Amino acid sequence: MTWGRGLAAMVLTAALATGCSSSVAGEAVSPLYDPFRVGGLPAVDGPSGIREDAPEPVGTVDNTDGADVDRLAVLAVDDVTEFWSQHYADALPGEFEPVEKLMSFDSNDPASPWVCGGRTYRLVNAFFCPPLALLAWDRGVMVPVARKFFGDMSVVALIAHEYGHAVQRMAGLIDKDTSTLVIEQQADCFAGAHQRWVVEGNSPRFTLDTGDGLNHVLAAALTVRDPLMPAIVAELLDVDEHGNALDRISAFQLGFINGAQTCAAIDDQEVRQRRGDLPRSLELGDDGTVQSGDMAIDESVLAALMGDLDAIFLLSDPPTLSLDPRECAGPQPGTPVAYCPDGNVLGVDLPALQRFAAPASELRNLVLLQGDNTALSALTSRYVLAVQREREVALDTAEAALRTACLTGFAQQAMAEPVPGRQLVLTAGDVDEAVAGLLVNGIVASNVTGATVPAGFTRIVAYRSGLLGDPELCYTRFGRAGNG
Predict the structure, then answer these.
(1) Which residue ranges run through the membrane (predicted)?
(2) Is the peptide bond preceding residue 484 cis, with omega within 30 degrees of 0?
(3) Rounded to two decimals, what is the model's pTM?
């Protein structure tokens, strides 16, 4: 987040689940926006990873050292191959040809081989090489790190993404003029289609639950988002755009919900429509330095946010802000923000909120992404409970939790452009911080009791609905506009 002109704005912890929020019961409005479903499937926790009765991997890997991470990667290749052998003809033109050339390498090893015209030493990545029809992965860093922090299924999703690049070429979906962004978004989408197949119990090798397991897969997708930089720097460095966290997760969700045929329809126009007019790059200051987009959270920033939200929602009885925990304490232990309807008060534990906002992105310390909008989106979510109070809808239901995420998204959409009289402006990276919070603690998608819904997937769907929609959409998708 940054100050509006006069401009100067918004963690994944160890547990990728509901964090300090509990889950809540309720009734659904639509299968797709059901608080207890994920793309129409039940939202449940359960086993995720390699099945006990999984067959042995059958692919042959060049340059392998026989490590268990290579066994996992080959098992994933076998699984994605089986998925496409069953579904390619129904979704895509052309003829399916299995990827048979596989290679692993160790990016820590200076003697690691050159592949596809480039060095693999220090190449912490996985890739598909079209001229060789070869799929390769880093067994030294990338696969073991993904497995450690996000679980086996994040590795399977990684392989499914790279295999998607092979599928694009089989189907003739891309050519030399296709943007890198479209190429990557299609591959993210294909990975989502495969993961749905696994969730539905079709894979003989893997299982994936729609709660914590899928949350981890989405968190892994967030870590491979584009780095933040000014647009002019990206142009000078000729940096290919792959997509921010919301881009990558939303493409994955498209494939998961609608299937592989939807992925084939992704083009530049579809991506532009799906991402809206949200900021994509950091600003340069008057002195030429890159503006981080993160601001220190203090009383003046909270007052500015309250003023901006008052101007966005124009409530007849706007809530007041209190920094005294005795006036409105959080309903869940460790929650730095709360809303108390009886007094129409937003309560803030300022030191706790400041810890929430401290910029961080360090997997080794079990933090995925945190910044000022981790905090400011959480406080915005408590404000929009007051918006719902004035609308006279229930505040303590599962629908209210998702409606809160949706209205928070709308508020942040409204803050994406400088407006006369407004003080804060959304900056590049702010939405990614909000998405990380939705996966970890769920505060932005929680109701007045602090309870959220089980699946981070569904919380993000609700937030994005508001980010690209309007308030009325939040009420129609996530509960009736009146009482009840």
Answers:
(1) none
(2) no
(3) 0.88
Element at 49 (helix H, strand E): strand 49-50
Q: Please classify residue 241 by burial: count the beta carbons closer than 10 Å to its beta carbon, then call 0-12 exposed, 13-18 middle and 19+ buried.
A: middle
Structure tokens at 457: 């997937």
CB atoms within 10 A of CB 330: 20
Tell me the residue type at 164. G
Annotate 125-187 with DSSP letters as a single string.
-EEEEGGGTEEEEETTTHHHHHHHHH-HHHHHHHHHHHHHHHHHHHHT---TTS-HHHHHHHH
Amino acid at 270: E
Helix (H/G/I), strand (E/B), else coil: 425? strand
Question: In the numeric block, which tokens belong to residue 369?
Answer: 């992404």
Residue spans of the domains in the chain: they are 2-30+291-477, 47-208+245-275
What is the β-pairing status of strands 345-348 and 320-322?
parallel
Distances (CA, A) of 6 to 2, 421, 423, 425, 436: 10, 10, 8, 11, 29
DSSP code, position 4: S
Tokens matching residue 452: 């959220």
- DSSP lists the bridge partners of residue 338 as 347
- Does the structure show a pLDDT above 70 at 109? yes
* 196 contact partners, CB below 8 Å, separation of at least 6: 39, 41, 255, 256, 257, 259
